[in-house]
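Risk mitigation, structural track. In case the binding assays with magnesium ion fail to produce interpretable data, a predicted complex structure has been prepared as a fallback.
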Amino acid sequence: MAILEIKNAELSIDNKKILKGLSLNVNEGETHAIMGPNGSGKSTLSYMLAGRDGYELDNGSITFDNIDLTPLSPDERSNLGLFLAFQYPVELPGVSSTNFLREIFNSRKKYLGENELSHLDFIKFLRKVAEDLSIKDEMLKRYVNFGFSGGEKKRFEILQMALLNPKISVLDETDSGLDVDALKIVSEGVNNLKDKKNAVVVITHYQRLLDYIKPDIVHIMSDGKIIKSGDADLALYIEKNGYSEILNEKS
Amino acid sequence: MKKVRNDQFFSNLEKFVNKVYPNQPQRRPYLNLKSWPSPKDEAWKFSRLGNLARKNILPFDFENQQDFNINKLIKDSISLVFVNGKFEKKLSDKLLSEIVIEEVQIEDFKEIINKFDNLSVKNHPTLNSTLSCSEKFFKIKFKNDIKFYKPIEIFNLGGTENTSIHPFIFIDLDKDTDVQIFQHYSTYAGLLAPFEIINLSENSNLEIIKIYDDKINSHNLSLTLSVIKEEANLRSFALIKGGEFTRSEMHTLLEGENSNADINGIYLSSGNQHHDLTSCVYHNVPNCKSSQIVKGVLGEESTAVFQGKVRVEKLAQKTEAKQMSRAIMLSDKAVSNSKPELEIYADDVICGHGATVGELDEDQIFYLSSRGISKQKAKVILIDAFLNEMISLSISDKFHDIIYNKTKTKINKLLTNEYE
Ligand SMILES: Nc1ncnc2c1ncn2[C@@H]1O[C@H](COP(=O)(O)OP(=O)(O)O)[C@@H](O)[C@H]1O
Ligand SMILES: [Mg+2]
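Fallback model:
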């Protein structure tokens, strides 16, 4: 069953067209990869999905579980089960990581009609999830993303994903800035969360992430559109030959 | 309605002093000030006293009939209660023998005042009105028989819309003492003119937390003069949230080497409130540090001012002086003014200053909302964070939650009104 359906999405920023008729269907249980040169609109797509101000569609539609997403605010989309791991996570000086995580965890529980955890139970649960991602206690005592290294920021995004247990996760270049060990840890984290009911969309430049998070479908995005889709072999082809051949083929 | 002249209060004051203290010539020099500072006066350019000048105010001159509830912030603190500017022993806690509260005369602290050779101090309406008309001048002395004291909470209560009240207190720390004081300003006074003198002897530590929460028609023109000796440390924090007009003005003189002064504050301004943090730090000797850090949140049509001045004398090498102000605007009708001033005559000094004014960060709001937090809640979290950082930096951990809770209701009010 389709979780996410994007039809002919067109979007402009400052009167410049960025998305130019992009369509994408993601079904339950699937893992998709989106690859493409810098500036092709991948992050724009992710912001559009998350409902950022200024990223409203000019044309086209997006539905999530058959619900029209366009009128919904970012928090409503998150509550429905959409998660975006940011390419550049935002620093929140003064906001304690632990408090922040408890806040988002409990508000999701509340939305789902499940019981919130007591402070103590939450801390226990958090420790366990953090440990699996090699996140030290010390990091949770700091302010959100504040002074985190690139790799720490990315792991912190996946920690949030684990706490929110979304139906669909869009990971925007989560692999950039990670060394091989961290890449493995993060990928395992994502794979552990994967089941038949949810879906993952990874945006990446590199095959090496796809060695760990195996995609069912690979899309090549260029100039605001998906220009080619295929199976995991398409990513291997890109790794070997670059984008130019496929781009040329199109024009 | 009868028009009130600009000098009305000062002629009321003179009549009052002539009647009540006919035989106290030491008060007379302070009757020389005849009118409110005008906007042409550099020190008052951003904080205009027109509304105050138009009030017909008389010094408070009757017996207190009211009862007061004293709401201490800290369970085991010692309270000192001033009602209508007068010390009320009955309402206050019993003092430990190591703390002496005694009546003093102007002569006993005049020397300290004279160290501040500066017109904005000399012509300050609070200095002049309070020295000419306050009934008694009290000094609290902390003797070094014990090093650590229980926190002191000083309450300023009482007042009516048409009266001025004039509490005076001289806080005097002996060598090696360690004292924490909360000052509560919660009056109904048309004008509250609290005048404080602080003397920190060698190696003493004072943490003073001032909570300005007067009723909505009040003008509070608080003035504090501090003198800091060798190795002594003043940590001052002002939380301004009440009154129609509140100015917290502090002049701090570092006159002993290796001393330190942190003159920090937060203002939370709503409606038509005007809040002003004015601070001058004078580095007269080498090897001292100071910081003046102020943060504020402004909503509706409120206005706020931060005036921070650092003066480093030629002699005062190796000075480190830091100054910063940050304001968050929740409304485009609110106005924030910041006036940093550095007067530096020494060459080996580190002075930093910066000022920012802005709205809440859209990227941060988006990040929080993308995690399921409503926009409104996201703003609360970000303002809390903004203030929390400041509170952690400025005051002892054990008082953190108390002060944080004091900001809470005001923040909620500010954010609710944003959507009206
Ligand atoms: N806030 C913005 N304002 C103006 N142009 C933008 C903004 N964000 C992205 N763009 C432009 O949109 C295009 C797509 O950017 P982006 O979505 O970040 O691409 P990608 O993630 O694929 O590298 C680029 O040309 C970029 O310059
Ligand atoms: Mg990108």
